[in-house]
Amino acid sequence: MKKTFLTAFAALLVAIPAVQAQKVNKSGLLTKIEKSDADIADAKKNAKASTWINRGKALYEAAVEPTKSLFVNMDAAMLKLAVGEPSATKQVTLLNVPYEAWEYPYFIAYIKDGKVVTWTQTDWVLKEAPAMAIEAYNKAYEIDPKSAAKVKDGLQQISDFCSQVGNTGIDTGEYVAAADAYATAFQAQSSPAYGAAADPALLYYAGYLRTVDGSAHPSSFGQGAEYLKKAIDLGYTDEEGNIYYYLFHCYYGLKNVSQDNVMLAKDALITGIGKFPKNERILDGLMQLYTAEEGVGDPADLVTLIDSAIADNPENVDLWFGRGRIFYALKNYDESIASFKKVVELKPDLFEGNYYLGVFYTIKADEMNKVMNEKQYSSQTAYDTDLKEVNAVYMDAVPWFEKAYELKKDDVNTLDFLKSICFRLRDEQAVTDALRYGNKALVEEFIDGQEIEVAVLGNESPCASVCGEIDAGAEFYDYEAKYLSSSASFYVPARIDEDVSEQVRETAVKVYRAMECRGLARVDFFVRRDDQEVVFNEINTIPGFTSISMYPRLFAASGIAYPELIDNLIALALEE
Question: Under a CB-based contact definition with an 8 Å cutoff, are residues 40 and 104 in contact?
């Protein structure tokens, strides 16, 4: 009997979440607010700060109740325990991210990897509750300034809740609702009783979100401009200065309302570029404005603007950076190059300075090459002369890209530029000779390193020999170096550190397995001299097996003599 009872009790525990549903006592919360309405209608109670504080609390409770159990990264199982089973679930995609949507009476929770990532509120007890709560707390402070501490606590709660609404709105793409929530959070902090300056970043977030929404709903541009302008007036700017670009976007989006907004857009960018001359968005906005709108000004005016700033502060790297970008937009590549030369003069180890200097040399050479391609030549000499000039400019780019690569070796763009330019500047005669045998030539990267070889033996469970090293003693390890001359030297084991040797051997086995090899193979590598990086070169599935070949020599050094090695190979073949 006891066992039956416990089984039934356990089943009941498991079943509890399935029968629960989200419970929000909407009528009870509204009753509290109605009572508060009656209290403030009473002249005597209306004059008490406590009446208004209690009203603020009731309104705050109504605002947070539907989503009070939610938090980011909440376990989905905990959500079910807190508010019950969802009424429905489905797969959805928000902002290109797939989620499982759990629907509840007051919100939809978006689940990914078993966690609550964000949510959308779909119903409210009283939608205006946060703004009404702020009014109530302000009234309490007006009646009795001594209530400031309690009022500030209430205002902080409202601000925190609205900031959370803004955060979730960004994640779900509900930008207008998020913007309004951030603005309400700022409003709460702007109350006299708050006792500290309101955070203007909240206005920046609100303005940015209205800017984003403006592309679909132009009416948002006006509200966005108001928020951003106020944030700037309060001394706020983001780290990169994008606030000025967003303000430009808002004003420019309102140009059909009034042409005065075009000049306001210009003023926003001019102010922004003066403070953040490296900001590419602002520079692009200026070039767009100056070239698309009559009466705004000549693009060359931007040069005067930036040069004036440089005259006052000639050691400012950002100003020189901005100058180079402006001249690039004006297609004056020589001045771009001159500007970035100044950048690297002031900051020799700045990656961006070296990288862009290489880029602008390359762009200049590309333009020269384009002109060459469109030109009709009457003599080979004239063509060769122009080609030499173009290649000289490409060559000028190389040292700056090399310096950029030295500073940031994981930058793919730098490496791509170097490969492309170095291919172009290779010995043209060598490429011509290669193309006599077909229409393609394979050009490999030169690696300054030791040539390391590893012998691998086995089928399902391959093993690797010790590492061997070949020093060709010549420019290439060709037939003559291998078999006719005595210039080559062999080192078994290789002259590399033990940890590098182990890495080479492990990689050799990985390559062998990846190629699904059987029996035997020799895997060849380079180990760079400067940083000991291991570079896979090639795999030889039928390696040399003479008395001087590396394969048997490597296994002999690993403890497997020539006769035993042959026996092993025969056994491996029989396995197959």
Answer: no
